[in-house]
Design goal:
It holds the Pfam family Peripla_BP_6. This protein is an alpha/beta fold and 379 residues long. The chain has twelve helices and 16 strands. Helix content is 45%, strand content 20%. The chain has a seven-stranded mixed sheet with strand order 9-8-10-11-12-15-16, with helices on both faces. Strands 4-1-5-6-7 form a five-stranded parallel sheet, with helices on both faces. Helix 6 links the parallel strand 8 and strand 9.
Length: 379
């Protein structure tokens, strides 16, 4: 009996081994995210959303590719929110890990560093959160899941002039960041076009913490609104110093504000401020509500826009792989480029010959420590 039991055990183990050898290989995709550095919270949200999409796909047996189903694996690397770090990550993902497509990065300066590498290797890249136009410009393999700054800047400028009745505006932005610089310039141009006047256009450099010289100039102009197109980790200190100098202007921002740390750091100073964003939790569609509930259950946190856009980027890639019917980067690229009316949780996405989707934006107001939907703007 013992010999018979041993024989069955050997047959069973051989069966498992055979099954493992016959299982189709995983579909490998890369993620370049700022897991450390000054916007590490955005990187963690990116990682969370990618793993949520991965788990959902694998729970369903994997993605259908041709006649079989294949499991999904995201290889997530830390680019430290540095362009040089992003370049290193992209090289690894493409040359060492042999991924089929890449999600990332999040900051425009990093996506701008990774995009030429993905383009040269002909590996599809989708950045979830990079709104600077240069990221996709002139490239066939680079896409984004978000709107671009010319649209976002126009939305904020028109909101300031029309909704807030502002006639004068001051701007303070990080000149070393592609994102901050780009949207500041768009806002300046659009606000002027609407009939408003830019009274100050002040700059600083990344990691600066003393803005008193610039804000003193702004105080002298007494603007109706102060536009801060900067990241969530910088804005609270800038508002604090502005209020300490006696600046009473209404404060506006952009999608770089969307992180829970904004209110944690700024507290009551953030009350009454507005910013543009990709979605509003309190104005969510049924699909977005399902995503928010799943994310909350898994991570005990409300997802920010970077997370929601990462989830959309993953789903776009999944659809492209399934429609391509094969694990081939060129075929996946062609299927992404052909996407029309994709129902993402952050809006409907269509690519019209380039990597920029046509999408709407929302304006949020900070009220009682929460982000409150104010209005929606479509192209």
């Amino acid at each position: 009996m013992k010999k018979l039991g041993l024989l069955f055990l050997i047959i069973f183990l051989l069966g498992l081994t055979f099954e493992g050898l016959c299982a189709p290989p995983e579909l490998k995709f890369g993620v370049s995210a700022p897991l450390t550095g000054d916007i590490a919270a955005i990187g963690q949200a990116t990682k969370n959303a990618a793993l949520l999409a991965q788990d959902e796909a694998n729970s369903a047996g994997g993605l259908k590719v041709g006649s079989s189903k294949r499991k999904v694996r995201f290889i997530i690397e830390d680019d430290e929110n540095k362009p040089e770090g992003t370049a290193t990550v992209f090289q690894k993902l493409i040359n060492q890990d042999r991924v089929l497509a890449i999600i990332g990065s999040q900051a425009s300066k990093c996506s701008n560093a990774g995009a030429p590498i993905a383009e040269a290797a002909k590996i599809p890249q989708i950045t979830p959160w990079s709104t600077n136009p240069n990221v996709t410009k002139g490239r066939k393999f680079v896409f984004r899941a978000c709107f671009i700054d010319p649209f976002q800047g126009k939305v904020v400028a028109q909101f300031a002039y029309t909704k807030l009745k502002a006639k004068t505006a001051a701007v303070l932005y990080d000149i070393a960041s592609d994102y901050n610089k780009g949207i500041a310039e768009v806002f300046r141009n659009e606000f002027t076009k609407t009939g408003g006047k830019i009274v100050n256009f002040e700059t600083y450099n990344t990691k600066d913490t003393d803005f008193s010289a610039q804000l003193t100039k702004i105080r002298g102009s007494d603007p109706d609104v102060l536009f801060l197109p900067n990241y969530f980790n910088e804005v609270p200190l800038q508002i604090k110093q502005a209020r300490q100098l006696g600046i009473q202007a209404k404060v506006l921002g952009s999608d770089g504000w969307d992180d829970p740390q904004l209110i944690q750091l700024g507290g009551k100073l953030m009350e009454g401020a507005y910013f543009s964003n990709h979605y509003a939790v309190d104005n969510a569609s049924p699909a977005l509500k399902t995503f928010i509930a799943s994310y909350q259950k898994k991570y005990n946190a409300i997802p920010d826009a970077a997370a929601a856009l990462t989830y959309d980027a993953a789903k776009i890639i999944f659809q492209a792989v399934t429609k391509a019917g094969k694990a081939n980067s060129l075929a996946i690229r062609d299927q992404i480029a052909a996407i029309k009316n994709f129902s993402g949780i952050t809006g409907v996405i269509t690519y019209n010959g380039d990597g920029d989707p046509v999408k709407g934006a929302v304006m949020l107001r900070i009220e009682n420590g929460k982000y409150v939907f104010d209005s929606a703007v479509n192209p």
